[in-house]
Write a structure and sequence with these properties.
single chain, two-stranded antiparallel sheet, 2 helices
């Protein structure tokens, strides 16, 4: 149990860092425990020019995506109100793993 809590805390910390860097700079730098440092360029996609970056976390490819303000979801509403919202999606399964709103991370399915 304590080990799971530690991994969950580490994941939340990594996602928080990725989200902050995605929204505030041209690259994301992460140094997961026991892994090599990753320096990744933030790109912009779609007609809305949304920021995105693909990172490897715990052996999984994860896409961090700035929330589209035009979406009618609650996340889109928060983004329209000026909050920084970043969604995290597993590249292989296309399932959303977590969301970060102004640095507060919510991991789905826990």
């Amino acid at each position: 149990m304590a080990e799971d809590a530690g991994k969950s805390q580490e994941l939340s910390s990594t996602l928080r860092s990725v989200a902050a860097q995605l929204m505030n700079g041209p690259e994301v730098v992460i140094q997961p425990e026991d892994e090599q440092e990753q320096r990744l360029r933030v790109t912009r996609v779609g007609s809305g020019r949304l920021r995105t970056v693909r990172v490897k976390i715990n052996g999984r490819d994860v896409q961090a995506i700035e929330q589209n303000r035009k979406k009618p979801s609650r996340w889109g509403e928060l983004a329209r109100r000026g909050h920084q919202v970043v969604q995290f999606q597993d590249v292989a399964t296309k399932k959303y793993l977590a969301v970060a709103v102004d640095g507060e991370v919510t991991v789905y399915g826990r």
